[in-house]
């Protein structure tokens, strides 16, 4: 098993590419069912990523239904590829969503939400280790975003696959997860 980010990124992209639509749906539902067990439901503002379907990311539709059923404020983001920063918006019935040039579904309009209001962040990733380190696509959007969150903001990775033992090339600027939820279990760091 590879242990550096570049090789792990490739390995997990290939594993994801092999998943069928029904695998993705089944695993996404299992992740959501595990989330229900977590002690995180006393918060108000929850940040959720909208999946890049072409990258076979976790389908967060189930999480969106769960959050709206619990009457929570749902926050989604728009990415600025020049500054590598994300701006956050409230997801409402009036929010228009459009895919950007990287196939990331983003809000076209909406009510801005300051980063400091966000209490729980569901974090996309390709791989993670038993220490709570994660590997994303390597652009640094989430590291920048999470670094600007309050220290008590709960960071929850969502993964189709279980953890690796260790990621070797972790940087000091990499923000660790508090939890990672897979179809099989909840990891606490």
From TrEMBL:
InterPro entries: FTHF_cligase, FTHF_cligase-like_sf, NagB/RpiA_transferase-like
Entry similarity comment: Belongs to the 5-formyltetrahydrofolate cyclo-ligase family.
EC number: 6.3.3.2
Reactions catalysed: (6S)-5-formyl-5,6,7,8-tetrahydrofolate + ATP = (6R)-5,10-methenyltetrahydrofolate + ADP + phosphate
Organism encoding this protein: Flavobacterium johnsoniae (strain ATCC 17061 / DSM 2064 / JCM 8514 / BCRC 14874 / CCUG 350202 / NBRC 14942 / NCIMB 11054 / UW101)
Keywords: ATP-binding, Magnesium, Metal-binding, Nucleotide-binding
Enzyme class at the top of the EC tree: ligase
GO BP field: folic acid-containing compound biosynthetic process; tetrahydrofolate interconversion
Sites where the protein binds ATP: 5-9, 134-142
Cofactor(s) for this UniProt protein: Mg(2+)
GO molecular function, one term: metal ion binding
Positions contributing to substrate binding: 52, 57
Recorded superkingdom: Bacteria
Lineage of the organism: Bacteria, Pseudomonadati, Bacteroidota, Flavobacteriia, Flavobacteriales
Record flagged with keyword Ribonucleoprotein: no
Protein name according to UniProt: 5-formyltetrahydrofolate cyclo-ligase
NCBIfam families per record: MTHFS_bact
